[in-house]
Amino acid sequence: MMKYRRLGNSGLKVSEISLGSWLTYGGYVGREKAISTIDAAYEHGINFFDTANIYMQGEAEKVVGEALRKYPRESYVLATKVWGPMGEGPNDRGLSRKHIMEQCEASLRRLGTEYIDVYYCHAFDYDTPMEETLRAMDDLVRQGKVLYIGLSNWTAAQIAEAVGIVDKYLLHRIAANQPLYNMFAREIEREIIPFCERNGIGQVVYSPLAQGVLAGKYKSVHDAPAGSRATDQHGKETVKSWLKEENLRKVERLRPIAAELGISLAQLALAWTLRQENVSSAIIGASTPEQVADNVKACGVTIPAELLAQIDEILA
Q1: pLDDT tens-digit map of 60-108
Q2: In the chain, N or C terminus with fewer CB closer than 10 Å?
Q3: In the chain, what is the straight-line distance between the N-terminal and C-terminal CA atoms, in Å?
Q4: Structural domains of the chain sorted by starting position, each given as residue range(s) with its CATH number in brackets
Q5: What stretches of 171-264 show up as alpha helix (H) in DSSP?
Q6: Residue 142, pLDDT above cutoff 70
Q7: What DSSP designation does 170 have?
Q8: Residues 83, 148: Cα–Cα separation, whole Å
Q9: Catalytic positions, please?
């Protein structure tokens, strides 16, 4: 049964498992299968759907918007992002006021909605003053086009500077941070999670399954299952960064722990990320309804302390 957590210190409740659309919808997953996967997620209690303007240059937003349009708007939380290049012009990328305002309008059109629940700055923009970016985001909130502000792929120091500007000018507070986090990538545990906990910012983590490697999908670095991301031209480079013999050995050592808990490897990896109270939601990149059904069973799974210690030893 799906469980829900607050997004940081906000009053917004999001499902512990959320559904993303990077490399999938508008990409190697066909439209009909994408829509059926989104439907399955909704039926399993997922209320948090994540996309970005740059995913397949707007095509992912169109598919997500089309799939969700049949449901009551108040019943789901929709997130998208701004920063990446959407054209060849000098102002077609970044976090300038011009690009943010124009891309928010473009995302609203593609999604077919009047407002975005969570709007992320997709990466840090070294060419734009941070105050300009945060004031533009604050204005979108005041206009009712965005409800909550998020950051993604920012360092702890950058997040801290943003919080300082928000506090100084009494801007709308940052509710979410979207970082990479999984058993192989634990960097946010050092600085980002402690700082965000103190400042009411919730983590919405991406790649919790390391592109399927932590789900036990790959038996060998040279043997990719047909239809997997490792066989897709868009996804294979990303998967390659995780598909290493060292990681596969760790996955094999994790199998007995998953078996002891009576859960799948994917469920173990998701439950492990959700052990962090500061993690509001873990984004899955499911490409089939069956994957959704398996992944959502990670909700409510508690990993005993002695098994967490074993996992730490395996991952060390």
Answers
A1: 999 999 999 999 999 999 999 999 999 999 999 999 999 999 999 999 9
A2: C
A3: 32
A4: 4-315 (3.20.20.100)
A5: 192-198, 236-240, 245-261
A6: yes
A7: T
A8: 17
A9: 55
